[in-house]
Amino acid sequence: MPAKTKPLLSVGKSIKRIREQRGWSQEELAQAVKLQRATITRYEQGTLNIKADRLYDIATALEVDLGIFYALREQDSRLAHIRKFATASHDDHTPHTTGDGPR
Fold first, then answer.
1. Residue 1 lies in a domain
2. Domain assignment present for 69
3. What is the pLDDT of residues 16-51, one digit of tens each?
């Protein structure tokens, strides 16, 4: 089962990722959607609930489909699950040496 992530944090990370890909600062995004920069910061940190209309405004400003925020959230969740599995699998197959190898 995929690792569970906090939805607000995941959507916020997606906003940040897309904003940075566009080369925008938090201030620029805030101005584009008529919000305070601190509000954008809290959205990206997952500490403030994003209303649907605000998320729509952000998607419009960044020129992306609204669904991309959720698609990236799902992708992050899957990657976290794969990393967790790969780490556990690697730990199970790491050879244990005793120092008594060939001389």
1. no
2. yes
3. 999 999 999 999 999 999 999 999 999 999 999 999
The CA distance from 11 to 83, in Å, is 20
17, amino acid identity? R
Domain with 45, as residue range(s), is 7-88
The structure's pTM equals 0.64
> In CATH, what number is assigned to the domain containing residue 14?
1.10.260.40
Distance of CA 95 to the CA centre of its chain: 34
pLDDT per position as a tens digit, 39-95: 999 999 999 999 999 999 999 999 998 888 776 656 555 555 566 666 665 555 555
Domain tally, the chain: 1
Round to whole Å and give the CA distance between 11 and 42. Answer: 11
Q: Which token pair is 10?
A: 């995941």
